[in-house]
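name: query_chain
kind: protein
chains: 1
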Amino acid sequence: GSLYRLLHRSNCQIDERRRLRMALDVVWLQTLLFLKNY
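structure:
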């Protein structure tokens, strides 16, 4: 499913490992965008 659906469920519980992986994915994508001057 989508991140939006995951975050907007009333019983949303994301384990610490998954949260860390999501945060690292965001940082990686932001770095790629920065390096490509977007």
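note: The two ends are 27 Å apart (CA to CA).
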